[in-house]
């Protein structure tokens, strides 16, 4: 059982420096505004479009690191992406100052929510999607209740309900709108919403639109949840003192900025004890958690019947778009009648519907192979391997085992741009998040692991992160409090799982003589490569971008051996795990392919 | 009485500061007298023993001079020793010595002495310092809000009572049961071929879809969609900020801006999330919104989410709108509110009744009262205006006259999603503040290329011909419907009623 990892707080010096940095940036911005004579574009007699502070923040603070966000890509968001180059034109207005070029850079993608690797064209899914496009078109130009319901939609809803283990389901064309349009239909005046502190913006806006009273409990803190619940029930509605009509707890399966899985089993206990309802947002956990990819319920061994409303999106694991609500038949019937997204919004595109159907079939093994299940296993292996390596590097990583989202704490906001630009120059696309998405001092970089990543890709990513973490001094000396990964509660082979995890620690200590001869030769080759490349490595550091793109080219041309993939590049045996791990240990994980 | 603050500390701040003010005045009056005291008393020869000479000669400006302290101690000891000797070591001598010691101390602490407050006041701008401190305290007290004891609170519930209440509480069912005849049974459409659909197995004329220009699902669009799916996959797997921006999105935005004749355009991934994200991005608690009573759900939700003061005006009634604008202005004047953002939100063609907004008159009004205008053009885009730019063009306004124009891609464009056009400032602001834009995965690339495809078709001469045909069709359909004789309508009504009664029985 993973306990909440507790309060995250930056080292004192870092917070001090961060405040100093912000004061300096604000001072410089203010000086510039004063002497450059910035005047807004607002017409006379009109209030400015943006609040003055907001405007100042965006022009003078955010515009400095604007190039770290909204980077356009020119490919599918697969394991490797083509990031388009941009140049900064430095306008004082802070608008439209990034020019996009035609040239692009091939980067390892550690940023997309492509957990199961369905983002790119797939041999099984894509032909089916294209066939559906031919039959049912791109869009029905109508709402679901009018002429937007196709046989594909019907099938998707049945399949989704079966996939998550509920009676019925309803689907919408956008994950955000699913929350923001369904919550107001379920909750209203006289109802109480108890929401996790770090819930997604869509839940927040849905709750706000519903008119229900919202109370917040500390992130993933079940005791606090229970306290809030008890006092709320005892006090009743504010001022009126009438009992609440309905109370619903809102949690997420995996929190997208924390990488933590919610303690679902304990929350369900509390929920049952007080007879309140539970709304589980599985946007990030469906497909990613659980041995068969069925989400948080499977991961925690919770009966889906104990979760009243199961919400999720098709954007992440299924590589499509849209969202679903799965619940009892009565609830779904009610939503069909009362949810504005069902009545007024354009129906989900049939092609996107087919993508989800095909992806689910694959995960269910209905295509007659184990490819789907292999993907889930690969995802967990990749995620746990990557997390272990990051922790070993001395980085402060949030989140739980099996979760494909891992935020690496940067803390100092000044390092945002450095980390992001250094990573990009080394052909690594990684997301950095700062104020206002997180609190001022809890700046972080976020890694999203995919089943599409090979072990080779991950090692490359790790080497870059190690490099950048050294340069940016991101090892804050936090020791990880994360216990070793727990076996799946519902997993009958849990003993086996523990054994395989147990051997994890020893991976770094495997001596060369223990390996089969051809692998020794391979390892030795790597060692030589590394020695000869020391000079080049120095050159690379000065001209990171060029050399890194060189790497990519060489990896494309197959100069570097692909040791980790057996056959189809999915299932991995422990030997290759061990081998790769020992490689990364030997080479310090840095610059394995630096001079290749 | 737990939790109630009482006792000597509960004093009114203004009373305290008043008292301090009096004190300050007294001080100001009394201090010069003290200050002059040393001059008068300096002549009094009360010094004894040899040590006092240094006390007098030491005129250094340091107040707490070490010498003064040493002098003090030294003179007391000397007085005691001297007294002891004078009285031949008897107790009486000690008494004399003690009195002398006290005298010595008095010399230092008494008027004219170095440790007397008057000395401090005289030598070190002490007057100003003390008064300054007092003034600061008074200012501080004035700035405090008056303390009011909180109302008496009841004894908090015990743990046992809370448990009891929790046990007793019974929630309502999550949703009320939907009656069978109220359930939504959508027809299942298994094919969309041109203007026909196959609904529940029957081929029928499609009068349901908003495919106004019949640009959706053309063979060209399907080909484009298939190619895009092959290249980019189906979903974009990320929000725009985090590597979810794909070149086809940028291309579509550029094309949309060009088509609408504005600086820039922004695309959202769903139509109902578009305007409901735009409104909260431009309005908050302090601002004023005027919305038409026939505006649809997304506008209503946006208005709710913004928390602004919402005024609902009568449908297409410009006099009512003006009344509200005057009322808002007067209210702002009366309460001396700072300038706030004021926005009128209307639909180009109302989805609920098909009416057009009189944008020309609205433009005059909004310019007169300094409002911004948001026009939701889901239904009018590609339908109204010579170039299909929508209601703004239809009413002869320039694209720059209306601040925000937004709409759905699910209608004339034949794709899925939402769009908004405006000046650079309007659009760029949404890229950070539009929550449906920031916090949602971006539009699937194939939907973007499909929309690009229909936008391209719309800007061709052939597209304009389609629009002309659409307007012609609409006019003739309207005419035909209006020409249905009353008895026919009554007959249909009668037949429907009969059918409903049969169902009920």
Short description:
Chain A has helices at 12-36, 52-61, 125-136, 151-164, 175-186, 201-210, 222-235, 264-274, 296-300, 329-338, 340-343, 350-364, 371-392, 415-425, 455-472, 494-502, 517-532, 534-542, 544-556, 574-586; strands at residues 72-73, 80-88, 98-109, 168-172, 192-196, 213-217, 247-252, 277-281, 309-313, 323-327, 405-411, 428-429, 431-433, 443-448.
**Class per helix and strand makeup of chain B:** alpha/beta
User: How much helicity do the residues of chain A have?
Assistant: 40-55%
The outline of chain A comes out as: globular
| Rounded radius of gyration of chain A (Å) | 25 Å
Helical amount among residues of chain B, as a percent range? 40-55%
- Lateral arrangement of strands in the main beta sheet of chain B: 5-11-10-9-8-6-7
Strand ordering within the main sheet of chain A: 4-10-9-8-7-5-6
What is the assigned CATH homologous superfamily of the domain at 219-462 in chain B?
Type I PLP-dependent aspartate aminotransferase-like (Major domain)
Instruction: Tell me which protein chains meet in the greatest interface and how many residues each side has.
Output: A-B, 122 and 109 residues
Span between termini of chain B: 68 Å
Calculate the terminal CA-CA distance of chain A, rounded to whole Å.
43 Å
Put simply, the count of helices of chain B is 20
CATH arch. level architecture of the domain at 219-462 in chain B: 3-Layer(aba) Sandwich
Instruction: Show unreliable segments of chain B.
Output: 1-10, 33-62
Overall average pLDDT of chain A? 79
What is the number of helices of chain A? Answer: 20
Largest sheet of chain A: 7 strands, mixed
- Amount of beta strand of chain A: 5-15%
Q: Assembly type of the shown chains?
A: heterodimer
Question: How many strands appear in the DSSP assignment of chain B?
Answer: 11
Largest sheet of chain B: 7 strands, mixed
Cofactor (chain B): pyridoxal 5'-phosphate
Domain Aminotransferase class I/classII large (chain B): 205-493
Signal peptide (chain B): 1-35
Region (Disordered) (chain B): 38-60
């Amino acid at each position: 059982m993973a306990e909440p990892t507790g309060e995250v707080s930056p080292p004192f010096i870092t917070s001090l420096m961060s405040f100093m940095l912000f004061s300096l940036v604000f001072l410089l911005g203010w000086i510039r505004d004063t002497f450059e004579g910035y005047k807004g574009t607002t017409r006379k007699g009109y209030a400015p479009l943006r609040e003055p502070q907001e405007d100042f923040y965006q022009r003078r603070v955010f515009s400095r690191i604007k190039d770290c966000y909204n980077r356009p890509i020119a490919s599918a968001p697969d394991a490797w992406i083509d990031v388009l180059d941009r140049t900064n034109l430095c306008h004082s207005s802070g608008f439209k100052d990034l020019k996009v070029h035609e040239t692009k850079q091939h980067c390892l993608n550690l940023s997309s929510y492509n957990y199961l690797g369905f983002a790119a064209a797939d041999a099984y899914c894509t032909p089916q999607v294209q066939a559906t496009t031919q039959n049912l078109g791109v869009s029905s130009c109508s709402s679901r209740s009018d002429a937007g319901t196709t046989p594909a939609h019907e099938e998707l809803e049945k399949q989704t309900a079966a996939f998550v283990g509920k009676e019925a389901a309803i689907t919408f064309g956008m994950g955000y709108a699913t929350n923001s349009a369904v919550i107001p239909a379920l909750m209203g005046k006289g109802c109480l919403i108890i929401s996790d502190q770090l819930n997604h913006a869509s839940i927040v806006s849905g709750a706000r639109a519903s008119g229900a009273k919202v109370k917040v409990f500390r992130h993933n803190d079940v005791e606090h949840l229970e306290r809030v619940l008890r006092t709320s029930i005892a006090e009743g509605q504010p001022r009126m003192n009438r009992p609440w009509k309905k109370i619903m707890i809102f949690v997420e399966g995996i929190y997208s900025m924390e990488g933590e899985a919610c303690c679902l089993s304990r929350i369900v206990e509390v929920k049952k004890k007080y007879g309140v309802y539970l709304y589980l947002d599985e946007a990030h956990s469906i497909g990613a958690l659980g041995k068969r990819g069925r989400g948080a319920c499977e991961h925690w061994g919770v009966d889906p019947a104990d979760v009243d409303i199961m919400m999720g999106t098709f954007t992440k694991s299924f590589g499509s778009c849209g969202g679903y609500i799965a619940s009892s038949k009565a609830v779904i019937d009610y939503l069909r009648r009362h949810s504005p997204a069902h009545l007024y919004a354009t129906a989900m595109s049939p092609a996107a519907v087919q993508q989800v159907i095909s992806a689910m079939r694959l995960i269910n093994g209905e295509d007659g192979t184990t490819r789907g299940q292999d993907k889930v296993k690969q995802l967990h292996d990749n995620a746990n391997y990557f997390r272990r390596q990051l922790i070993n590097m001395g980085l402060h990583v949030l989140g739980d085992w099996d979760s494909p989202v891992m935020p690496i704490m940067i803390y100092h906001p000044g390092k945002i741009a450095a980390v992001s630009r250094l990573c990009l120059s080394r052909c690594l696309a990684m997301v950095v998040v700062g104020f206002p998405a997180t609190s001022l001092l809890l700046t972080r970089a976020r890694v999203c692991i995919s089943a599409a990543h090979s072990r080779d890709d991950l090692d490359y990513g790790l080497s870059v992160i190690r490099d950048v973490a050294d340069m940016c001094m991101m090892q804050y000396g936090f020791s990880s409090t994360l216990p070793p990964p727990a076996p799946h509660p519902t997993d009958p082979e849990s003993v086996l799982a523990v054994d395989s995890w147990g051997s994890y620690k020893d991976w770094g200590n495997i001596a060369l003589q223990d390996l089969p001869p051809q692998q020794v030769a391979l390892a030795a080759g790597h060692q030589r490569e590394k020695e000869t490349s020391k000079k080049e490595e120095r050159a690379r550091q000065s001209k990171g971008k060029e050399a890194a793109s060189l790497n990519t080219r060489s990896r494309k041309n197959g100069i570097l051996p692909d040791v980790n993939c057996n056959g189809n590049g999915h299932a991995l045996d422990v030997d290759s795990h061990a081998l790769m791990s020992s490689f990364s240990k030997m080479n310090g994980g840095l610059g394995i392919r630096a001079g290749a | 009485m737990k939790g109630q603050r009482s006792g000597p500390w509960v004093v009114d701040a203004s009373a305290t500061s008043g008292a301090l003010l009096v004190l300050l005045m007294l001080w100001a009056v009394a201090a010069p007298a003290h200050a002059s005291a040393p001059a008068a008393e300096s002549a009094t020869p009360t010094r004894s023993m040899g040590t006092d000479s240094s006390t007098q000669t030491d005129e250094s400006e340091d107040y707490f001079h070490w010498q003064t302290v040493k002098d003090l101690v030294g003179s007391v000891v000397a007085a005691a020793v001297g007294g002891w000797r004078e009285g031949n070591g008897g107790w009486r001598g000690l008494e004399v010595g003690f009195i002398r010691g006290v005298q010595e101390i008095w010399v230092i602490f008494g008027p004219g002495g170095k440790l007397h407050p008057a000395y401090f006041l005289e030598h070190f701008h002490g007057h100003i310092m003390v008064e300054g401190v007092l003034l600061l305290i008074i200012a501080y007290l004035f700035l405090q809000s008056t303390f009011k004891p909180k109302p008496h609170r009841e004894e908090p519930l015990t743990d046992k009572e809370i448990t009891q209440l929790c046990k007793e509480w019974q929630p309502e069912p999550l949703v009320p049961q939907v009656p069978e005849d109220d359930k939504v049974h959508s027809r299942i459409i298994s094919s969309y071929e041109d203007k026909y659909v196959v609904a529940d197995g029957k081929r029928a004329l499609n009068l349901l879809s908003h495919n106004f220009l019949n640009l959706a699902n053309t063979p060209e669009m399907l080909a484009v969609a298939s190619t895009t799916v092959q290249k980019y996959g189906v979903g974009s797997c990320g929000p725009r900020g985090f590597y979810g921006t794909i070149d086809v999105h940028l291309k579509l935005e550029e094309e949309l801006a060009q088509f609408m004749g504005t600086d820039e355009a922004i695309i959202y991934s769903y139509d109902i999330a578009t305007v409901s994200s735009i409104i909260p991005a431009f309005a908050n608690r302090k601002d004023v919104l005027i919305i038409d009573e026939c505006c649809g759900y997304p506008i209503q939700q946006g208005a709710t989410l913004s928390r602004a003061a919402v005024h609902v005006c009568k449908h297409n009634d410009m006099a009512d709108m003006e009344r509200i604008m005057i009322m808002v202005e007067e209210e702002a004047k009366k309460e001396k509110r700072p300038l706030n953002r004021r926005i009128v939100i209307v639909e180009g063609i109302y989805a609920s009744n098909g009416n057009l907004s009189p944008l020309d008159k609205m433009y005059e009004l909004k310019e007169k009262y300094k409002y911004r205008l948001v026009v939701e053009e889901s239904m009018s885009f590609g339908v109204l205006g010579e170039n299909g730019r929508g209601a703004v063009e239809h009413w002869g306004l320039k694209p720059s006259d209306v601040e925000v124009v937004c709409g759905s891609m699910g209608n004339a464009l034949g794709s899925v999603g939402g769009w908004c056009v405006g000046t650079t400032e309007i659009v760029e602001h949404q890229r950070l503040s539009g929550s449906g834009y920031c916090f949602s995965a971006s539009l699937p690339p194939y939907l973007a290329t499909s929309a690009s495809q229909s936008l391209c078709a719309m800007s061709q001469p052939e597209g304009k011909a389609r629009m002309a045909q659409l307007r012609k069709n609409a006019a003739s359909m309207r005419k035909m419907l209006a020409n249905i004789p009353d008895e026919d309508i009554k007959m249909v009504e009668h037949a429907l009623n009969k059918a409903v009664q049969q169902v009920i029985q």
